Amino acid sequence: MIDFGNIIYWVVVFLMMTGLYLVLASGNLIKKVVGLNIFQSSVFILYISLGKIAGGTAPIFAEGIERYANPLPHVLILTAIVVGVATTAVALALAVRIYAVYGSVEEADIEKQEVDAD
Amino acid sequence: MQLNKLFSAVMLFGMYSLLSAALFVSLDAVDVALTEASVGAGIATILMLGALSLTTNRQRQISWKRRLPAALVTVAIGVLLLYGLSDLPVFGDPAAPAFKHVYPRYAFESPHEIGIPNMVTSVLASYRGYDTLGEVTVIFTAAVAVATLMGHGSDTRSFSGEGMEHHLILRINAKLLLPMILLFALYVQFHGDYGPGGGFQAGVIFAAGFILYGLVFGMSTIREVAPPKIIRILCAAGLGLYLLVGLCGMLLGGNFLDYNVLAHHPVHGQHIGIMLIELGVGTTVAASMIGLFYAYAEHEHRQ
């Protein structure tokens, strides 16, 4: 049974699997990094959707408001987004260095050169 | 849809980030949306384009031999996850476990205990300041790692200015936008206690302003405005400020990162502590992002 109230969780699973498929199927290292980023963003959406409260508002105190979204997932995810871009930069830097040595960012080319060298 | 040019994949990813920022707004996570919009659609896309320009824009077709097992594994895991979804609480349910335990204290006591309206800032800088210290350290470490991998650029060498100054529209728009971007970054930094914002978002927006300047007016111009040496020092100084505030708490008789002892009244101490912490975060994040941009932009020249 598809419960439409929970459709956001289905979206999370779909995005997560899209990212996983990109990482598994793609032989291009930069495409893999894009896949990891999509996977990561699906986790972000999951956390934020767990912090949502029906009839609530953003977690900024104001007179006359009784219900706020849970601020804890927001904190975890906003720091994770900035950490995520920093670690993505490290992954891309590694890809750039691999390209400088092997002349390619395709796994198949790199493996072939390694086998030929042995 | 098979994208052979990686360029299109990267641009689509940037748009996806902007859309997910809109989703975060509708989920009441305004701080997260501000971060995602500035990081995902700004910095991440620029870094990926930089990596593409240093490697190659083309990718090889993937064979069916590789696609089929990947698709099977993905579908199998996806089905298992969908099965597991039935155990998750109903979306938006106020009785969900996420709204028990620490939530009542964060949502209902923090405005009086910490004294600032934005609960996200209270939790980020005060209740879970130790976590945030870890995150800032990771960002600092990543900036050091990229500088080690790509080289941080020489301090003396001059670069041939190859910006886009000859594009009239770009140049004038950049000049119009720059002061507003930097002013907005400062607003986000210092208004983070009252509205959405804080050191992480402000740092990224500040860096985005500098990167725009560097892209339009060339690397040699931006290096005069923000010398790499200063950026490296600022990157460490922000983290140092964070640690120093924590140690001050200890010296004044409290715990590490305890702001209550920083002033006579605990709420005043919290205000001082949070402002200094956010300043440290903003400095390290902005300097790291500008440093990452330098590493990618100057790598090509050095080869």
Strand content of chain A: under 5%
Structural class estimated from helices and strands of chain B: mainly alpha
SS summary, helix count of chain B? 11
Question: Largest inter-chain interface?
Answer: A-B, 77 and 96 residues
Mind telling me the C-alpha Rg of chain B?
22 Å
Quaternary arrangement of the chains shown? Answer: heterodimer
Q: Describe the global form of chain A.
A: elongated
Measured as a percent range, the helix fraction of chain B is: over 70%
Spell out the helices and strands of chain B N to C: HHHHHHHHHHH
The CATH level-2 architecture of chain A is identified as Orthogonal Bundle
**Count of runs of 4 or more consecutive helical residues of chain A:** 4
State the helical fraction of chain A: over 70%
**What is the radius of gyration of chain A?**
20 Å
Q: What are the segments of chain A in which pLDDT stays under 50 over at least 5 consecutive residues?
A: none
Structural class label of chain A: mainly alpha
Straight-line N-to-C gap of chain A: 55 Å
Instruction: Tell me the total number of β-strands of chain B.
Output: 0
